Structure formats: structure tokens, C-alpha cells
Fold this sequence. Notes:
Elements: H1 2-16, E1 18-19, H2 37-52, E2 56-68, H3 70-78, H4 81-87, H5 100-107, H6 109-122, E3 125-128, E4 131-134, H7 142-153, H8 160-168, E5 172-184, H9 201-206, H10 233-247, E6 251-252, E7 259-261, H11 262-265, H12 297-308, H13 323-327, E8 329-331, H14 336-346, E9 375-384, E10 396-407, H15 411-424, E11 430-437, E12 440-450, E13 455-465, H16 467-473, E14 479-487, H17 489-496, H18 501-505
Parallel strand pairs: 6-9
Antiparallel strand pairs: 1-5, 2-5, 3-4, 7-8, 9-10, 10-14, 11-12, 12-13, 13-14
The protein binds phenylalanine.
Pfam family, one: PheRS_DBD3
GO molecular function: ATP binding; phenylalanine-tRNA ligase activity; tRNA binding
EC number: 6.1.1.20
Amino acid sequence: MAESLQQLILDNLDVHTTIQDTRSIVIPGQSEPAVSRDAQITVLGALNSLLSRDMVHFDTHEITSHVLTSEGSQVALEGSHEARVWSALPTKGQGAPVTPAQLEKQFGGELVQVGQRRAFKNGWIGKEGAGFVQILSTIEDTTRMDLLEIQSSGTLKSGERTLADLRKRKLIVQRKGQWFTVHKGPNFSTSTAKPETDLTVDMLTSGAWKTSTYKKYNFEAEGAPTTGGSLHPLLKVREEIRNIFLEMGFAEMPTGSFVESGFWCFDALFVPQQHPAREVQDTFYISDPPRSLDPEPEYYKKVSMVHERGGFGSTGYRAPWSHEETTKLLLRTHTTASSAHMLYKLAARCRGEDVEDDRPAAGKEGQKDDGFRPAKLFSIDRVFRNETTDATHLAEFHQVEGVVADRNLTLADLIGFMKVFFGKMGIKQVRFKPAYNPYTEPSLEIFAFHPMLDRWVEVGNSGMFRPEMLEPMGFPKDVRVHGWGLSLERPTMIRYGINNIRTLLGHKTSIEGIENSPAPML
Ligand SMILES: N[C@@H](Cc1ccccc1)C(=O)O
């Protein structure tokens, strides 16, 4: 319909050059001219669309018009109350007068009351005995005629006073409206075919480009806002966690490569060679190249000894030791492998190696410098586990890992630290549960109360590294090392209300509405 209205406007302009008053336009499919509000809107729509292509220009005129109320429509159809009362009466002297009761029976009380009063006032009817008779034998029902005029033109020639009167009688109401004068624009044509926006190969080969009209460039257009260039939620949360570590005095440790040896991922951490985590169902092994270089022989000797036969106060596992197992290459299952590298490096001075480190000794007063220097280190990086994937597990995720090395640390230090650390992440309620890790004793699982889920969820794993791990590296006996790890994905999912991890790490999905927003607090 919109198209045919545009066509109608253009065809009219083709003949007359201007359309003086759009109120005379009959919208295709409608029998009435464009005076109703809906019709005005339809006309404006068609004009704007032609204006956008410079096919027409137009001027807008504001008008107030009048429309009939439902009572007014009824009067326009059946006559005014007074006329109807008048028509029900006999001419004076030519029949029995009609009583008010009889009139009420015919028209209802309300109509009769108004009608009778006005007919009287007009001098149309008179009283005779107990009833009424016509005094004039013909009348002019001006109310009805005025309403019919308003119905068709929206106004009344005879003037504002009558309009005000009809408004007071609630037979009409005022409407604000618009009408338009329309002129030809620079691109005037009688064809409403949409101008082309692209020059296509088809148009070139068929020659249609010669006769096509083209849409003008709009250099003023602002363009659609782009959502590109924003940070992934995991990166945002990673940055936040990194800042928490940094403000707590931690240094970020290098995490090396994803490929690690069995020695650093497991053996150095005192994970028994027969441990189920080392099996192919849990760990991805690399087939090419299949073997790592051997670790430093002195350290290797101590690690294999503490496993096989014990030492440093431990009885060890007393199980066969396989050199092959230590050289297997795999995708690291935890960043604790990187922590092991760093701790081994940190202990270098304690092993008597010549390292550059100008930090002061950290012993008790009078204690001989054994080379130990305290450290607080963290890393946030990717790890891999050969797991069955589901809504909350993927074969890879990011691990947030931290270690604190100092003399005389206790479990209370670890718990206190965790409370502060998680508190800074917005997790105020934490609980600890004894757990088991081959490389820590005691070990604690960390649970946080999740107010949205209304339950405790596991958020991390921690513990104090065993002497079987620290002493072969060369750390003095009184040095304690805390460690803990958590996934980056879990807090991110909780924070963003994402319940499928694939939404976070999948490749095709987008997370609506969060592209440019800061990470919400938990
Ligand atoms: N490596 C442990 C986390 C951890 C790190 C350090 C000490 C204790 C636990 C894990 O993957 O869950």
C-alpha cells in the first residue's frame, strides 16, 4: 500500500506540479480522503520516503480538526435529540398530543429530556393538555447538518462558536493534525523503483546500469556502532586477578611452554609414578618428539631417591622407579609444573650456585645466610586435561596459581592469606576442607558460598608443599612453601552468569551485552 500511495503522489505531481492539499488524497484501498490521523501518518510516511530520495519536497501545515464522538456519529446518522422528539409528535390540531411518558417509552428518558428542552427552546414544539404537539410543520436540523459537515471536512464553515457548542455537548472532539503541500524534487520521476545501492556484475553484463537510478552517498551518516575490539571476559577477569596479586606484592612467574616433561609435571612434585593422574585417560602425551631432555643429574638423583627409597625424613613410595616415565612429554596438567621450575630456581642459591640476587638474607637475627630468599609468585595460564567434556569441563582451561615461600609459614598463614585473596575477588565467605594432593600436606580444598546459587561451590585447591618436594630442590628445612590453584573459568562463569563453559571458550558463540561492560562483581 505504501508503494501505491507513493505512486499516486508522483502521478499527481506529474500532472499538477504541486499538490496543494494532501487532505484530498484518497489512500489506495481506502474510500475516505486522508483526513483521519492514521491516514495523515500514512501520507507522511510516503512523503518522507520520497523525500529521502529527493523525489519530492513538501511543506507541513498544522491544523486542528474535529471528529465526531460516538454520540455525535449517532446524531449524524439519526438526527438530533430535539429533531427526533419533534418528529414523533402530531401537528398542532391534527392528532392526540403525545405525553412525556409516551415519549420516554419510545426514546428513553435521557434523550427525551434533552430533546424536549431544546425543541421547546427552538419553538418547534408546544404544550397541549397533558402532552406535546408540533408547532412548526417543517424544521431544519442544523445540529445534524453541522455534524455531517464536520464528519466529511473535519471543520465547520459557520464558525468557532458552533464548534465550541458542539464540543460542550460532547458531540465532537478536537484533533491536532497535519496536511502537506507537495512539490517536485530534483530527482522527481514517476517511477518508484528503489534506487540501486550497489553496482553489481549482473548490472554491468546486462547493461542495466545505464538506466538504473542510484542512491546518493550520505556522507553525513554516522554508521552503525561496532562492538569490535573489546576484551574477552576471561581476559578481563584475568587482569583483575593479576592486579590483586600485584597489589599483594606478588611477581608474575614465566609459565614456559604448554609442553612439559613427566619429571617437572609430576616427579618433581612427588607424584608417584603409578598415580592415576599420569595415565593417558587423564593426561595428553606427546608422540613427537616423544622424550624430553634429562633434568640436571644431581637433582634428578635426589628426586628419584626420595620416590624409590625415601630420604629427608620420608620413607618414600618404595615402588619401582622408571626413568622413561620422567622423560615422557605431555601437555601440562597444572601450572604447578611451572611453580616447580621456579621454586627449583629459587633454591639455586641454597644449593650453593652462584646466582645474582641482591636481596638481603631472610633468616633470624644472627642466623647464617643459607642463600634462601622469600618469594611470592603467581601465574595465570592454560593447562590441559584429557577429560570427558561437558557443560562445565573442557579439555583445557586456565589455572590461576600462586606460591609463597618463607621461613616458618604455618597453615594459619595459608588460610588467612586465602581469606584476603578471595575477599579481594569479591568472595567474602570461604570454607576449607581437608583434601589430598601428592605434593602438599596438609592440603585444603577451598569452598565459597555462592549467594546466587545458594550453595557452597569449590573454588580452589591448596596446601603446603611437602618436604619430599622442597628438600631435593635444596631448600633449608625451615622453609615452608604454600601453594594454591584455581581455575580462571569458574569465577568468570559465576561473575557473568554463564552456565556453559563452551559459551566462554567456544569459537562461534558471542555473549550478548557484555562486550564493552566492565566485569560485574560476584
Ligand atoms: N595443582 C593443583 C592446585 C594446587 C597448587 C599448589 C598447591 C596445591 C594445589 C590443582 O591443579 O588443582
